[in-house]
Specification:
The chain is an alpha/beta fold. The chain is 41% helix and 19% strand. Among the domains are: 62 residues; 185 residues, Nucleotidyltransferase, domain 5 (2-Layer Sandwich). Bound molecules: 2-acetamido-2-deoxy-beta-D-glucopyranose (5 copies).
Length: 495
């Protein structure tokens, strides 16, 4: 059979189309099989040893995606019974024992075969930082006791340590931005690009003993002691971070009470931040044992004192303001309080831990305006104790402290950090993001297991190259099909 010129063209086109189709099929199959490799799940465990309590978190992720962003999820959160490990000074062994319950729960989540490869960390924060300042041998005994218990677990125990204060803030910042998937973006043109300016979320953390603020400032960080810099997925990040020791919730309450005692030489103390009608006793020895309380006990003070609430938010604000040294920042734009350098706050913030708990109790986590927030806290402070007790039964002993905490946090955020009516809506009060508790723990594990590579993983580049090839083939195929159809049309039209 002799082909005409047009028929030859048609045959060539059909041949080319078939070849392209086969190529595309092969590429697609290769892609599909590489995706369908068996995916093992890996695990990691972190004990967050805070000043008031210890929490355990179990994280899990698909083994073959371990360097990707946002793939780690929380498999378990367990609250250790009893106080923070720093409280076990008279019986350090008990600090180790207290961790066993949660450790058992964690082991139940992890398949036996995986346990020897599962990293286990314990990080301690401000409670232990204060104890090491006060009596480093006691702190050492506690670390030895927890190390002994965790070292016996059938896991890959990597050690118990005190976190550096700047790391605590920076790791919380990494956790949030990792979970929200903000650290790296994939552009249309097939490149990994730096997250756009101002999209990264700042971190406001408050524990029992310290509070941290971390964000990307608008300009350079002038005081290098407040700067943390790291390279994540190929991009340099420089954040401002500072940790204020003794400005955590519990130490603030202790300092507040000590301040009220100094100004009144009586056996009864009238506390403006406690609700009117509240009456309770406080023992004084633990108060003056805190390294955050500068004053020594006034002479002749009894072992315990009666505290009576007056429910006066104005006086409470003025008492909490006394915990800050604002005058040391007078006339300086880039200063928060106590002489600490801080550039102006910038961008979105997540406020978590005690910030969240207090604002959650007050129903103020749905982005209410500053005016509403203020009015709600003041109203709550003025509620008589009788009504408060009746409305939230069984919530002692913390119930009396929400008013003080709320007013203190407002003072810290507004007068301390410099949030205003305009920037207030940029603060979101959150406990979790994407099912994971926000805190330093996840960032700590990611950092110590090198799961956030400094550079974009080569595998991602290969994947995006694969996608590019597949796209080109697809476009070519479509063009060929159109040409073939056009040719066929011509041929049949001639017949
Ligand atoms: C993750 O990155 C590390 C170092 O960059 C590399 O050694 C490891 O093989 C990577 N893991 C996977 C699953 O890609
Ligand atoms: C630290 O604690 C140990 C044991 O509790 C005690 O013997 C020692 O005197 C303390 N040291 C200081 C400086 O308080
Ligand atoms: C990450 O871990 C390294 C030690 O491996 C440490 O030097 C560094 O400070 C950590 N980074 C942060 C932000 O904590
Ligand atoms: C506040 O800080 C300034 C400067 O650091 C200091 O001189 C002053 O004594 C401090 N005030 C109080 C009440 O501690
Ligand atoms: C928060 O809201 C709940 C339900 O609407 C209410 O029962 C509770 O009293 C509120 N709490 C405060 C502190 O107003």
């Amino acid at each position: 059979m002799k082909l005409t010129g047009k028929e030859r063209v048609l045959a060539a086109l059909l041949g080319a189309t078939a070849a392209l189709a086969v190529t595309a099929l092969i590429l697609i199959l290769v892609e599909a099989t590489s995706v369908r490799l068996p995916t093992d799940t890996k695990f990691g465990i972190v004990f967050d040893a805070g000043s008031s309590h210890t929490s355990l978190f179990v994280y899990r992720w698909p083994a073959d995606k371990e360097n990707d962003t946002g793939v780690v999820s929380q498999a378990l959160a367990c609250k250790v019974e009893g106080p923070g490990i720093s409280s076990y000074t008279s019986n350090p062994a008990q600090a180790g024992e207290s961790l066993r319950g949660c450790l058992e729960e964690a082991l139940a989540v992890i398949p036996e075969a995986q346990r020897p490869q599962t990293p286990l960390f314990l990080g301690a924060t401000a409670g232990m930082r204060l104890l090491s300042q006060k009596n480093s041998s006691q702190a050492g005994d506690i670390f030895a006791a927890v190390t002994q218990v965790l070292g016996q677990a059938p896991l890959d125990f990597r050690g118990a340590e005190l976190l550096a204060s700047q790391d605590e803030g920076a790791l919380g910042w990494i956790t949030i931005n990792y979970v929200l998937g903000l650290l790296v973006k994939y552009s249309f043109s097939g490149e990994w690009i730096r997250p756009p300016e101002g999209t990264l979320v700042g971190a406001l953390d408050m524990g029992g003993a310290s509070t941290q603020i971390t964000f990307v400032p608008g300009g350079p960080v002038l005081d290098k002691s407040t700067q943390a810099a790291f390279r994540l997925y190929g991009f340099e990040h420089s954040v401002y971070t500072h940790s204020y020791l003794c400005f955590g919730r519990d130490q603030m309450l202790t300092r507040l009470l000590a301040g009220l005692l100094q100004s009144r030489q009586a056996l009864r103390v009238r506390h403006p931040c406690y609700h009117s009608g509240y009456r309770g006793t406080v023992s004084l020895a633990p108060l003056y044992e805190s390294p955050c309380v500068q004053a020594t006990a006034p002479p002749g003070l009894p072992q315990s004192l009666t505290v009576e609430g007056t429910g006066n938010p104005r006086a409470c604000v003025s008492a909490t303001r006394g915990l800050f040294n604002f005058s040391s920042c007078e006339g300086r734009e880039d200063c928060a309080f106590n002489g600490v350098y801080q550039p102006p706050v910038r961008g979105q913030f997540y406020a978590f831990s005690s910030f969240f708990h207090t604002f959650h109790f007050l129903n103020l986590t749905s982005r209410q305006s500053l005016a509403t927030v203020n009015a709600t806290v003041w109203d709550f402070c003025q509620k008589p104790w009788k009504l408060v007790e009746a409305a939230w039964p069984g919530q002692q002993p913390w119930l009396r402290d929400h008013c003080a905490s709320g007013l203190y946090m407002l003072t810290l955020l507004l007068e301390g950090y410099g949030f205003t009516e305009e920037t207030w809506p940029s603060i979101e009060f959150r406990k979790q993001a994407g099912g994971t508790d926000i805190g330093w723990a996840l960032g700590y594990m990611l950092n110590l297991t090198n799961m956030i590579p400094a550079e974009v993983p080569a595998q991602w580049r290969a994947e995006s190259y694969g996608v590019w090839v597949a796209s080109v083939v697809f476009v070519a195929l479509t063009l060929a099909a159109i040409l073939a159809a056009a040719a066929a049309q011509l041929l049949w039209a001639r017949d």
